[in-house]
Amino acid sequence: MDRRHFIKLTAITGTGAALTACGNPEHQLIRFIPEDDLVPGVATWKPTICPLCSAGCGVTARVMEGQAEVFRNGQPGVISMGLAKKLEGNPEDAISQGKLCARGQAAIQITYHPDRLANPRKRTGERGSGQFVDISWDEAIKELVGHLDALAAANSQASLALLTKPRRGRRLDLLAEWLRRFGAPAPVTFELFSDDVLRRANEISFGVAQLPTLDLEQAQYVVSFGADFLGAWNSPVAQSAAYGRMRQSRPGGRAKLVHADARLSQTAANADEFVAIKPGTEGVLALGLAHVIIANNLRPAAAAGRAGAAIDGWATGLTAFTPAAVEQRTGVAAARVERLAREFAAHPPAVALVAGPPLAQSNGLFTALAVNALNALAGSLNTPGGVSFVPQPRPAVATRDLSALLQEAAPKVLLIDDVNPVFASPASRQVAGALMRIPFIASFGSFVDETSALADLILPDHSFLESWVEAVPESGAAKAVPISAGPVMRPLYDTRPTIDVLLDVSRRLATPLAPALPNTFEEFLNREETAGVLRAGDSAPAGQAGAEAPALQYIAPQFDGDPTQFPYHFLPYASQALFDGSLAHLPWLQELPDPTTSAMWCSWIEINEHRAEELGIHQGDVIEVASAHGTVRAAAFLNPGLAPDAVAMPVGQGHTNFTRYATGIGVNPVAILAAAEVSGTTALAWSATRVKITRVGGPDDTLILFGGATRERPEETHGR
Amino acid sequence: MNRTLTKPIADDLVRPLFQTSVWFYAIVFAAATVVACGGAAWGYQVWNGIGSAGIRWPVFWGFYLVNFVFWIGISHAGTLISAILRLVNAGWRRPVTRCAEAITVFALMIGAMFPIIHLGRPWLAFWLFPYPSAREIWPNFRSPLAWDFFAINTYLTGSVLFLFLPMIPDFALVRDRSTGWRRTLYGLLAFGWRGTTRQWNRLESAMQIMAVAILPVAVSVHTIVSFDFSMAAVPMWHSTIFGPYFVAGAIFSGIAALIIAMAVLRKTLGLEKYLLPLHFDNLGKLLLLMCILWAYFVFAERLTVWYGNEPSEMAVFWASQRGRFAPFYWTMVICNFVIPFVILTNYKTRTILGCVIASFGVLIGMWLERFLIIVPSLATKQLPYSWGSYAPQPVELTIMAATFAGMILLYALFSKFVPIIAIWELKAGLPSRLDPALQVETSLLSTRLDTEAFSSEAERADRGQP
Amino acid sequence: MASPSRKIGRAWPNWALAILGLVTVTTAACTFASPGQPSGMAERSRWGTSAVFTPAHATAGDAIAAFFDSRPDTVAQPFDFSHQIHLGKGAVCTDCHTGVEQGPRAGIPTVNTCMICHSQIATDRPLIIKLAEMQEKGLDLAWNRVYDYQPQAHVRFNHAPHVRAEVACSTCHGNQAEQTVARRAVDMNMAFCVNCHKAKQVSNDCLTCHY
Amino acid sequence: MKAVYGLYDDPHVAQQAVDNLRAAGVADADITVISSEPFDHFEFGHRDAATHMPWIATAAGAVGLVASYYLLAAAQMSWPLVTSGMPIVPLWSNLIIIFEMTMLSVIIATVITLLATAGLPSRGGKMYDPEVSDGYILVGVENPTDFARLEPALAIPGGRVKRVES
Amino acid sequence: MAYRWGMAVDIDKCTGCEACVTACHAENNIPTVGAGQASRGRAMHWIRVERYYEGSFPDVRLKFRPVLCQQCDNAPCEAVCPTYAAHQNEDGLNAQVYNRCIGTRYCANACTYNVRFFNFFNPEWPKPLHLQLNPDVSIREVGVMEKCTFCVQRIKAAKTEATAAQRELVDGALQPACAQACPTTAIIFGDLNDPESRVARLARSPRGTKLLEDLGAEPKITYLQKQPWHEPDAY
Q1: Which residue, A421, C36, C132, D1, is the most exposed by fewest CB within 10 angstroms?
Q2: What are the tens digits of pLDDT across the range B423-441?
Q3: Structural domains of chain A ordered from first start
Q4: Where do the domains of chain C lie?
Q5: Which structural domains are found in chain B, ordered by start?
Q6: What does the pLDDT look like over A52-102, one tens digit per residue?
C-alpha cells in the first residue's frame, strides 16, 4: 500500500464501513459465436444511405466490434458483432460530398433506440388503446396473408391500400409493382412538407415534374423566395456545400443571396439581404422583378419561353406588376424592387428559387410558376449557375395522395410503411377517424407512433443500417446516379425488412402473385443493377414532355379565418432538428438547440418582439394560439425576425404516442391548420391559416433555451 | 482582598459549566436535528450527484460558494478583532475576546467544509492536499483553490491555538473546582497548568507573538478568498479592489455576528455584569466604521465599473442594479448601509437592541453581497449567448440551514464546556491590578467599565474589607 | 440542576426517532423536489443497480474496491484454459490474440478459433468435446477479461504501437508460459506505464493515455 | 515531592513572601510563585520574563519561508505541467503560499516554544495547591533543603503555610 | 514533430445548421440529459452555434457563430485548476484529464467562452443506445468537467498511424468531427506550426479575428468575419 492508498484509506474508512457491498448478480446471458470477422478496436467504414429525407445522401457508417444483446433464433443472448458507431458523409457521394446534416448524423439513433420494436405485435385491446401482444413472424405473416387472401377471395383486391413515403427509387417501384400484380391501386404517399406544388409547377413551366438542382456554386446572384434550402428543404447538405463554395471558396468573389419571406428563417439569416414580404405575395415580387427586367430591356420577355407563357400577361410585359403595384401588394418598396431587379439582371448567372411557405399558400402554384418564369427569363435553366434537373432513370411511378384514403371508398386492408399521417395532418382532416374505419391495418414501422398505434398488426422493419437501401436522388447534384448499399450491420432484433416481408407474403398468398417477384429486395436491386443505370452526364429533358397548361392569372392568397377575428398569419415551419416531427423520437435532435431560437425539448410560439411588448407578453409566457379549427398553448419566444402580423411555430413536437423521447413534449401546430389546398393541386396549404393569440399566463418553464440573450451587445450603457 | 474580588467573577463564569437548563437541551436538540438534516441532504447529494444542487451552466458556483465566502467572512469576527485589541491593549476587549475567537474557529470550520461540499467528486477532496498524489504530480500551486487550502489551514491552525492557549489557565481553574469526569476532562485540557510566573510570562509572550502573526494571516485569508474570484476574467470579478473589499466585508459581518453572539450569551448565561452596554457601544462604533468603509468600497467598485463602461461589465452591473438581481441588490444596500447607519450613528439608538438589529441587517446584507458577487457575474459573462440563471434547490437550502444550526450547536456546546469569558484575563484586567500609569489610560478607555462592573470593588474598599 | 437533564435523558428514544424522522423527510423532500437524472427518460435507479448503461459502479462494494484498485489477481473463467500447455506446444500469442498487431485490442479468441486446431487435435478430451458441441450450437465462451482499466481511470491503451515498438507481451502480461489460466501478473498502475515511457523516451503527456 | 509554600490572598503580601524567601537565602530560580492570573505589575510577576521567543519565532519564519519556497519549486519541477502560459515556478503565485507557510511556521514555532519553556503539558507531581484557583497566590520552594528555615519566611500575616512531605 | 493544433471558422460560410453539434455528440459520447435537466441548464454541447439578432423587423439580421473550446495558449481555465486536470499539452491543446478532475468547476467559471460542461449526474444511455458509444472516447462520470478536445482521439489515431507508416501527417486528412460534418466547410482544422497548412493560411487572413481577443487568452481558433457583398462594379 503506497501513500496514495493510505490516504485513500483514511478518507474512506468511515463511509466505507457503512456501505456494504450488496451483490448485483448480472443475469447471465448466453453468448453467441460472432458472425463477423472484425479486428476489435479497429474501425471499418461501410457505405449506406441516409433514409430521413428525400435527399438521399450517401453516408458511411463507422463500424466497430462491440458486445450487443441480440435475438438469434428467437433467443436473447450476447454477441460480439460489428456495430455502427457513427454516420458520416460519404466523400464519394455526389450529394453529400462527405458532409452530413444534423438529422442525418442522428439517424443512427433509430437503430439503437431503446423503444424500437423488437418483434411483431398483434393488437389485443381496443383499437388505439395501445395494447399489443408479441407474436412470432410466422403467426404475423399468416395473419396478413389471411386478410389478403380474403380480399382476393372476395375479388376486391382494389380494397388494398399501401401508405408510404414519397421517396423516389426502386423500392417504391417494387412496392408499386407488388400492388399492381395483386390488383390494388397505386401506392398512397404522404409527407407533410411535400413538394408536389413545385413539381407540378416545374411540369407546367419546364415539362419536368421534378425538384430542381441549384448550381449555387457558380451562381453570382441568388434570390430565394421562402426556400429554406440551407435548412430542411430538398437536399440541404448538397445545397449547403454549394453555398459554402458560393460564399468563400471560389475565385471571382462572393455571390449575393437575397431572401424574401415573412419570417427570418435559418436560410434568411444567412442572406445578404432579407426582404420582408407579406405572406402569399412572393409571386408578385418575382413578377415585379421580371417586369423591371423586361421593361428595361435587360432581357427579352420571350427568353422565358414556355415558363413565361404559363403566366397571364407575360407577353405584354407584366403591366400589372410595376414596382409601385408590387409595393402595394407585397410591402416591398418600389425602389427596392427596381434595384433588386437590376442587380439580378446585372449579375449573371443569377437564379431564383422558391419553396416552403410561399408554396403552401392558396396561390402557391402561381408563385412557383412566377419564379420559374423569372428563372427562365434570366436564362438560368440548364445553365451553369442556374437550375437544372437531374436525369432520372425512369419516370416516377404513379402515386395517389392521402385523400385517396379519406374520401374515396375506404380500403379494407391498409398497409402503412413508416408514415405518420395522424400526427402530420390537420385535425380537421380527421385522418385518425378515417383509419379507425378501415377493418384491418398492418404497420411496418420500427416504432409505435400515433398512426401505427391504430394498427392491428405491427411488423417491425429492420433499421436502414440493417437492410439493403437504395436511393435515386431527385435533386442535389448535377449528375446524381442511383445508389444502393448493403446492410452495415447485422440486425439486433427479431425484425424483418418490410419489402422482404411483402415479397414473402406474395409467395404465400393462396394464389401467389404472378409472374413471381424477386425473393428479396437485395436480389431485386442486384438484378436491376445492370438494367436501368443512367449514363452519367445525361442532360435533362427540359421543355419536352408534359401537357401545356393555360396561362395562370394572379389571384390574391386566400387565408382561412376572418382577418378581424384572427388577425395573425400562422406560419408553421419545418423544424431544423425534428423536420416534420418524424424525427422527434431521436434524443440528439430533441436536445439540438434550434438554430434561430436555441430551444430544445419543447414547442414555442414565435412572436414579433415589439408586438409582444405591446401585448404585454414576455419571453416564456404561455400564450394560446387559436385558429378556427383548434387551439394550442405553448411558451412565447420573442423573435426580432418575425413580421408583427404573424406568429410562427416549429412543427415536430406534440406527439401523443411516439417513444419516450417525444411523447408528451410540446404541441403540434399542424393540428390547428385549416385543411385548405393549394389551388390547382391537392397539396395542403399549410401556411394559409389565420389565428388569434391570447396571453394565458406567466412562464411555465416549458421554454427550454440553451442560449441566453438574443442580442450580442448589452444595450444599456451608463445611465441610459 | 484579592480573592474576594476575583472569586465572584470565577464563580459567575464557571457556573454555566455546571448548571444546565432545559433550554440548553432544547437548543442543542433543535440545532442537532437541523444539522442532521443537512448531513442527510449532503449524503443525498453525494449519492446522486452534485446536480441535486441548483448549479448549472453557466452558473457553476451557487449557494455553496456564497456560504463559503460568508462563513469565512464571519470568521474574521474573532481572531482578527481580538488580535487587534490585544495589540493595542484595549482594556474592554477582555470579556469579548474568547467568544469572538470561538466564532472564528467555528465559522472557519463551517466555511472550510463548503469547498468540499461543492466538489463534484467530494470523495477525492484529499487531492487538494499538498502531496504528490499520483506519480509525482502535486496539486497545482498556481490555483487560488490551492492558496485557499494553505490560507484557511494556516488561519484555522492559528485561530484554534489562539483560542486554545488562553483557555488553558481557565481549564486549570475548572479542573480544580470540579470532580469526577469533569476533573479528568479538564485536567487533560489544562495540560498540567499550574500558573507559575514563568508560565504566565511565556503565555503572554506567546499571545503577543501570535497576535502579531495572526493579523496578516487573517487579512490574507479573505484576500485569498477574494482571489478565488478576482483571478478569473469574469466581468466584475477581475478587480484589484476585491482584496480589501472582501476583508472589509468580512470584518463587517464578523463584528455583526459577534454582537449577536454576545447579546445571546449575555441573556442566556446571565452575563449582564460582564458584557456591558459599553461593549456593545464600542462594537457598534466599530460596526459603524466598517459600514461606512463597506459603503465606500461598494461605491468605488460600482463607480469604476460604470465609468469604465465596458460592455460585459455593464451587463453584470445593470443586472444587479436594475435587472433581475435588483431586488437583492437594494435589499443588500438597505440592510448593509441604511439600517446600520441610521441606528448606529445615533447614540440613543446605539443600544444593545439597536446594535443587535443592525447586526442582523448586516448579516443578511453581507450574505446577499456574497450572492451578488458570485451569481450575477457568472450568469452574465462575456458572451451573451451563454447568459443563464440560477435558483437554489432544497439540498442547498437544507445544507445552508444546517450550517447556521451547526454554528448555534457548536456555540451552545462551547459555552457549555468552556468559560465563555476568559476568567484570568478578566481578573488581570481589574483596575486595581493595573499599573497606576496604565490605569489612567485604561479608565479613559473604559470609564463605564469601572463604574458599573467593578463598583463592588469600591464598595468593598469602603467597607474596609480586605 | 440534574433533574431536567435526567428527564430529557429518559426521553432519548423519542429524540432519536424525531431526528431520524426529520432526516428521512429531508431526504424525501430532496428526492422529490430536485429530480435526479433526466425526467421522462429511462427510470434511474437511485441506489446503484440501474439496468441502464452508466460508467458508475453497480454496487457500493464495487465502487470501494475500485477506489482502492483492489481486485483479485485471478478472474473466473468458463473453463480452465492453460496458456502453459498451448505455448509449450509451440503456439505464439498472436496465433489466437489476432488483433494485437492491428489495433488497440488483442482480442479474446472465440470458439471458432479454438476449433481451427481442435477439430483435429485432442478431439477426445472432455473440454474439447464440449467446445465442439458449443460451436455446433453457435454458442461462444464467455471469457472474462483479466486485464482492464477502471472506467474512472479514463485510460486508453493501444496494443499495436507497443507491439511495433517491440515491447514483449510478457512485459505487461507476465510470462504466460508459466501460467495456466491467465492471471494478472503485472500491476499495471500509472507508474508502470510512465516508467517504461520515460525509459523509452516516448511521450509522457497526459493526453497520451488519458482522453 | 517535597515542598513548602504559603498561600496569600493579597499580591502585596505575596511579594513580601518572595522578598522574605530571598532574604532567607533562597535562590531566585528556586522560588516558585503560582497564581490563577498574571500579576504583571508586581515584581514577582516579572521574574523570568525575559525570553527568546520572538527570535525563535522569527527564525522559524525564515526557515518556513525558505523551506516552502524549495518545497513549492521542487513540487512544480517534479512533473512540469504548463498552465495558462505561466512559468513552471511562478514566483507571484508561489509568494502567497510561501507567505502562509511562513506565518504557519511562526505560529507553530511560538506554540512549541511556549509549551517547551512553560513545561507543558506536564503530568503533575509538581508543587501545586487547588486553592490557587480560588484566588490565592502560592509562594513556595520545591524540594527545599531545610523546611525550618523557610517556613518562617513564608509565615507572614495574611498567609498560610503548608508543607508537603511525601 | 511538434504540432500546434488550430482551427479557423469562416463565419461567412456558417449557416447555423448545427451539423457540427450532432457530429460532436456522436463522436465524443456526449450524453443527452433530457428535457428536465435541459431546462435546468445541464445540456451539454461542446460546440454550439451562437445566434445573435441585430436590428428589428423588417431590417433584421441574425448572425451565427460556432463557439467551441478555443484551446487558448494562455487559457484562463488551466491555472485555476487545483489538480492539473486542465493544463496545456505538448501539442498546444487544453488538456482536460478526466481522472484528475475533482469537480471544483473553477475552470468553467474562469473560461470566458463558457465552453466547459459539467457532468451533474452520471450519464446514461438506455439500452441499447449505449451500443452507439465511441469506444475510442472516455465516458465521463458524475462530477467531472468536460469540453471540446479537438477530437484528440482522432489526433492520436492519426499520429499513431503516421508513425506506423513512418510519414508525416497530411494537412486536411485529420479532421475533428465538427469540421468533417460541416456541410459548408466553414470549419478548417490543422497544424498552425506548418505555415503552409490551410488553417495557418486562414489564420493570417485579413478577415481573421479571435473571439474576445482583448482578454489576452490567445485562442487558437480564428474567426473569419463575414464579408459583405458589394457590387463588383463598384470597384
Answers
A1: D1
A2: 888 887 776 665 554 444 4
A3: 31-111 (3.30.200.210), 136-190+401-461+496-524 (3.40.50.740), 198-388 (3.40.228.10), 568-699 (2.40.40.20)
A4: 83-108+143-208
A5: 2-124+140-429 (1.20.1630.10), 430-466 (no CATH)
A6: 988 999 999 999 999 898 888 878 889 999 999 999 999 999 999 999 999
Inspect the structure and tell me whether chains D and A have 3 or more CB pairs less than 8 Å apart.
Answer: no
How is chain D split into domains, by residue range? 2-45+126-165, 53-117
B positions 191-220 inside 8 Å of D (CB) = 191-206, 209-210, 213-214, 216-217, 220
For chain B, list the contacting chains (3+ Cβ pairs, <8 Å): A, C, D, E
Least-confidence region, from A17-31, B351-365, D117-131 = A17-31
**Residue E233 domain-assigned?**
no
Provide the mean pLDDT of chain A.
88
pLDDT band of residue A703 (cuts 50, 70, 90) is very high
Range with the poorest average pLDDT among A384-388, B330-334, D64-68: A384-388
CB of B141 less than 8 A from some CB of D? yes
Q: What is the 3-state secondary structure (H, E, C) of A277-321?
A: CCCCCHHHHHHHHHHHHHHCCCCCHHHHHHHHHCECCCCCCCHHH
Looking at chain E, which residue has its C-alpha nearest residue C164?
A: E164
Rounded to the nearest angstrom, the minimum Cα separation between C169 and chain E is 19
Letter string b/e over residues B40-67, b meaning 16 or more CB atoms within 10 A of that residue's CB: bbbebbbebbbbbbbbbbbbbbbbbbbb
Q: What is the ipTM of this complex?
A: 0.89
Question: For residue D144, what pLDDT band results from cuts at 50, 70 and 90?
Answer: confident
Per-residue pLDDT band for E235 (boundaries 50, 70, 90) equals very low
Cβ contacts (< 8 Å) between A665 and chain C: which residues?
Answer: 40
Tell me if C50 and E124 make a contact (CB, 8 A cut-off).
yes
Subunit contact E40:B56, Cβ cutoff 8 A: yes
Q: Is E76 an 8 Å CB contact of chain B?
A: yes
- Residue E28: pLDDT over 60: yes
What's the confidence (pLDDT) of residue C161?
Answer: 92
Q: Are A326 and A292 in contact (CB under 8 A)?
A: no
pLDDT the model gives residue A19: 37
CA distance C10 to chain B (A): 13
E103, E108, E212: residue with CB nearest B119: E103
Subunit contact A11:B388, Cβ cutoff 8 A: no
Q: Which residue of E has its CA nearest to C38?
A: E34
* Number of domains observed in the structure of chain E: 1
Let me know: does A444 contact A418? Beta carbons within 8 Å.
yes
Q: What CATH topology corresponds to D2-45+126-165? A: Alpha-Beta Plaits (3.30.70)
Average confidence (pLDDT) over B233-248: 92
Asked if E231 lies within 8 A of A710 by C-beta distance, the reply is no
B347 interfaces chain D, CB cutoff of 8 Å: no
Reported as a pLDDT band with limits 50, 70 and 90, residue D44 is confident
| B121 touching E (Cβ < 8 Å) | yes
Q: What is the CATH number of the domain that holds E160?
A: 3.30.70.20
- Read off the C-alpha cell for A471: 436511393
**What proportion of chain B, given as a percentage, has pLDDT over 70?**
91
Nearest to residue A168, comparing CAs of A55, A49, A50, A60?
A55
Least confidently predicted of A462-466, A592-596, B168-172, C35-39: C35-39
